[in-house]
């Protein structure tokens, strides 16, 4: 019995030694495996870091052409040198605009601060055919219609956007182009429609005009007098010093600033060889009580092609029930003249009385 027990103890001892030996071997292997895995992970991280640095250096040296990083928009060509003068700037601006006869987008939005954005479309055909329409994103209820054809321009805003308020329909303000300056039209639109078209990214500069020119590292500025019925207009144009983009236009007369257009987010269209802004910030009569300002963001443009029948596009909309107000019937007072309703027997309010109010548009500064 004792011998048997001794044999059992010896057998158990041998088994324990083998088990300890196996455990030591297993732990050693596990440690070695973990060590190998840690080295592999460390090597992978090092390789990833090196690869990232290489790609970063490549991108900084111009690898955007690979299409992996950076903007996918084509790069606009440099058209102005460091020593560009006023005539070089005029040629660059006109060279871009001369390639554009027609412009249209049905993928745009119109917005003012504090109000929901409106779906919008824009179309123009030089020299003076224009259409800007905006509608509610839900229900597609028309909210704004501004247009110009060869004879007239019109301006309509929905002063009852929800359709719940009772009252008269919003009027359509109309004027003939040749009667613009001597009518109350500037009280609705301070600039002729052709200048509004120029503000939308297709500016044309007169090569024969006498320009006041100033050059800076980030912008080139041209100031000139432009012919206009009535008081002369001063036009200031701010141009990108390399790409020739018109970044800003400002129009002034004897009364002060009439309009400012800030253009940004340009895209180059290599098939047409033109650059166009995709953000347009327009201010009419800035800083005045009658100020109207809005922003148009464009998804993309159709260049030199129009969707739909042009005859309908440039036709004043038949807004059912909307009264039509001919602004030429209300003569704007000349300098030093006031309206004498008693002597004329007519109630002719000042031009500013015809300015439409559109859900907070005048509040933008």
Let me know the largest β-sheet: 15 strands, mixed
**CATH fold title of the largest domain:** outer membrane lipoprotein receptor (LolB), chain A
State the shape. globular
Count of runs of 4 or more consecutive helical residues: 5
- What is the structural class? alpha+beta
- The helix content is 10-25%
- Ranges where pLDDT stays below 50 over 5 or more residues in a row are 1-16, 53-70, 333-365
- Beta-sheet strand percentage? 25-35%
- Using DSSP, what is the number of strands? 15
At CATH level 2, the architecture of the largest domain is Clam
Work out the count of structural domains: 2
Level-1 CATH class name of the largest domain: Mainly Beta
Task: Provide the descriptors you would attach to this structure in a database record.
single chain; 365 residues; 2 domains; 15-stranded mixed beta sheet; 5 helices
Explain how this protein is built.
This protein is of the alpha+beta class and 365 residues long. It has 2 domains: 2-62; 86-334 and 344-363, outer membrane lipoprotein receptor (LolB), chain A, CATH 2.50.20. 24% of the residues lie in helices and 29% in strands. The chain is built from 5 helices and 15 strands. It has a 15-stranded mixed β-sheet that branches. Strand 7 and strand 8 (220-226) form a beta hairpin. The protein is globular and about 85 Å long. The relative contact order is 0.15.
